[in-house]
Amino acid sequence: xxxxxxxxxxxxxxxxxxxxxxxxxxxxxxxxxxxxxxxxxxxxxxxxxxxxxxxxxxxxxxxxxxxxxxxxxxxxxxxxxxxxxxxxxxxxxxxxxxxxxxxxxxxxxxxxxxxxxxxxxxxxxxxxxxxxxxxx
Length: 136
Hints:
Blueprint: E1 2-6, E2 11-16, E3 19-24, E4 27-32, E5 38-51, E6 54-67, E7 73-76, E8 80-83, H1 86-128
Parallel strand pairs: 1-7
Antiparallel strand pairs: 1-2, 3-4, 3-5, 5-6, 6-7, 6-8
């Protein structure tokens, strides 16, 4: 089976593999040859795969995994970092991905707060001018 890992900027992996391990919200799972068609949303995690007796790793920042009718696996992700040392990927890359994800969540929360404040002000102005039939 063929594995493709792509980001918006690059094709990170394109190779024939024997097996793959990944993680979605329900937990870790494996894929072997002749797997049924499959679609899942991946979490921030490390994907591993085997080619002969060698194991390879790639840290991903979430994404979508599909297995098509021919058994080929495609992973589309926002960011991916390859590595042959699991300890380095786990300690460095996943920590950085988690920090960036937390910063994005905080920015999103602040954006929603600003939007709600604008809506509140619009409603208060509509309420004051409701007798006039106009928006000020």
